[in-house]
Amino acid sequence: MSEHIIRTGHLPADEVCALLANARALIFPSLAEGFGMPIVDAMALGVPVITSKFHAAEEVAGNAALLVDPKNINEVAEGIVRLAEDDAFRMSLINKGKSRSEDFSWAKAASETWKIIIEALI
């Protein structure tokens, strides 16, 4: 499987986006995360996500990702195999992910902020 994994080191944002858009999946088994923006980025690009079922990653991903225990390598590996072999499941995560990513759009953030401002002024 190592021939299918690209280790890049640090990359500029535009190169990250191009690689991510062409990825078969984002494997993001973080042990601790403040927010997990790569999860949202992948979902917006139509890339299914495998991520940690702990901390912020679970909250960000919701039901739109395959959640795994990042300390359990077998669980992570099983998730990778499932995404590789189950096209219906993969497509389900892609569709849910695109929808979930909209919850974190700038347009939604601006709209929610504007509502709070208006409510505070009334």
TrEMBL record:
One of its GO terms (molecular function) is glycosyltransferase activity. Residues 2-99 form the Glycosyl transferase family domain. It comes from the Bacteria. Keywords: Transferase. Pfam families: Glycos_transf_1. This is Glycosyl transferase family 1 domain-containing protein. It comes from Candidatus Kaiserbacteria bacterium RIFCSPHIGHO2_01_FULL_54_36b.
